[in-house]
């Protein structure tokens, strides 16, 4: 595969894990998951992790995965990139669910190290959902995972994801959807 094909397949394969964060920003609000509970005087997760945002994020990512599945054969034909994958049902759920839970785990860690909601922790903020999505996908269907996320694809995912994440968050900040640009 040439570089463009690797980047295209990496982006396609991760889209169901990328979109949940953005959907959560748009849909977030309402009761926080931790219900205001604290641990050692600090919030368990904080007000930035809500039921509404999480459920909408997973639903949005799964819906997108199904839409990509519907389009995959045509895209393979038109682009000639045979490696454009289809998402089995377990993966349709695992990618967005893993992404949201990875992000929630990162908030748990951030509160434990005394970072307020919205505080930036470089690295953790950009990769939490990637690690969560990949771990859940590997657990849900290891055969599909190893076939799809080859080493070159994984390398590209780790390079493009932080760039895309910083870019979309900056746009969300400019649009007034997020309070901070990260
Ligand atoms: N959001 C949500 N539920 C989630 C994830 C995100 O409702 N599971 C919404 C919240 O409105 C949140 C916004 O999306 O403020 C941005 O998400 P994120 O940057 O992950 O949260 P932060 O507010 O930065 O909080 P934290 O410091 O815990 O990451
Ligand atoms: Mg944040």
Essential attributes:
single chain; 182 residues; mainly alpha; two-stranded antiparallel ribbon; 69% helix; 2% strand; elongated; binds cytidine-5'-triphosphate; binds magnesium ion
Protein architecture, described:
This protein is mostly helical. Helices cover 69% and strands 2% of the residues. A hairpin with a 2-residue loop joins strand 1 and strand 2.
Summarize the helices and strands and which ones pair or pack.
Layout: H1 3-27, E1 38-39, E2 42-43, H2 51-79, H3 89-112, H4 124-140, H5 142-148, H6 151-174
Antiparallel strand pairs: 1-2
Helix pairs in contact: 1-2, 1-3, 1-6, 2-3, 3-4, 4-5
Bound molecules: cytidine-5'-triphosphate and magnesium ion.
Magnesium ion binds at residues 118, 125.
Overall geometry comes to elongated
Radius of gyration, in Å, reads 17 Å
Task: Tell me the number of helical segments per DSSP (H or I, 4 or more residues long).
Answer: 6
Structural class: mainly alpha
Q: What is the string of helix and strand elements? A: HEEHHHHH
Task: Give the DSSP E fraction (strand runs of 2 or more residues).
Answer: under 5%
- Unreliable stretches covering 5 or more consecutive residues: none
> Bound compounds, please?
cytidine-5'-triphosphate, magnesium ion
Concise overview:
With 182 residues, the protein is mostly helical. It is built from 6 helices and 2 strands.
């Amino acid at each position: 595969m040439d570089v463009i094909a690797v980047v295209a397949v990496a982006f396609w394969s991760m889209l169901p894990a990328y979109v949940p964060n953005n959907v959560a920003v748009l849909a977030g609000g309402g009761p926080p998951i931790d219900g205001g509970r604290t641990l050692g005087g600090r919030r368990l997760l904080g007000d930035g992790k809500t039921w509404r945002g999480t459920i909408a994020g997973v639903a949005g990512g799964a819906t997108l995965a199904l839409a990509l599945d519907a389009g995959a054969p045509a895209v393979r034909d038109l682009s000639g990139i045979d490696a454009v994958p289809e998402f089995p049902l377990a993966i349709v759920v695992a990618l967005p669910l893993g992404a949201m839970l990875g992000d929630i785990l990162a908030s748990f860690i951030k509160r434990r190290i005394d970072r307020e909601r919205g505080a930036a922790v470089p690295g953790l903020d950009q990769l939490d959902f990637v690690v969560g999505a990949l771990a859940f996908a590997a657990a849900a269907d290891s055969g599909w995972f190893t076939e799809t996320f080859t080493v070159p694809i994984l390398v590209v995912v780790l390079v493009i994801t932080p760039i895309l994440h910083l870019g979309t968050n900056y746009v969300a900040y400019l649009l007034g959807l997020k309070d901070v640009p990260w």
